[in-house]
Design brief:
The two termini are 30 Å apart. This protein is 38% helix and 21% strand. It has a single domain (5-210), classed as Alpha-Beta Barrel (TIM Barrel). The protein has eight helices and nine strands. Helix 7 (161-173) links the parallel strand 7 and strand 8. Residues 200-207 have low confidence and may be disordered. It has 211 residues and is α/β, with parallel strands linked by helices. It has a seven-stranded mixed sheet. A two-stranded antiparallel sheet has the order 2-3. Bound molecules: iron/sulfur cluster. Iron/sulfur cluster (SF4) is lined by residues 14, 16-19, 22, 24, 61-62, 89, 113. Iron/sulfur cluster binds next to loops.
Amino acid sequence: MKSFTLPIITSRGCYWKRCTFCTYREFYKGAFDQRAATLVVGDMARLHREYGCSHFRFMDDACSPAFLRSLAGQIIRSGLKVTWSCFARFEKAFSMDLLRLLAEGGCKRLMFGLESYNQRILDLMNKGFKVEEIGGIVEGCHEVGIEKRLMCMVGFPTETREEALETMRFLIDYRGKYTSFVVQPFHLEGGTEIDYHPGDSGSPGSIEGIA
Ligand code: SF4
């Protein structure tokens, strides 16, 4: 079997659509459409059969836990031997039960928009999750063999040095439990929530690393 990756998109827009730094609102005007998992798995089966592709990268802004549960279930039932990766949000719904199902259904890597490990900053970003929920999901993925890329941000308006360091400490404390990370400086994008309420965003350059 040839080893290559094909991109697939299963939705338009983002099901969460609330992060204050995101251009979602400007790009999609609040719309969100999700294809049914059965159709997506049908496409994967055809691409696997016709081109020999066995790894897929979902290009969606973020795949919801509910969609991924349905997708993994369909893949398992179909007997399709493929693997895949996608962007996701930290959500309580990523239970051990779901993570095991995803691993069995071919999930190789989840790329999470962590952004910050400080609750005040997460709330300002309107990320919609609690710092206490992050560690368990990272460890759960590690346990079932799903790789993780953590995408972080520093320099969000009003973020203090100490708050930014909490994110760095998390990356250090969980070293070995995730595969790679990226820390990017905050950029103010036009048309975002924060565009209308800009703060002081003096930030350093990007840092990339392998855990
Ligand atoms: S940052 Fe990601 S999760 Fe948040 S609204 Fe944008 S696409 Fe959705």
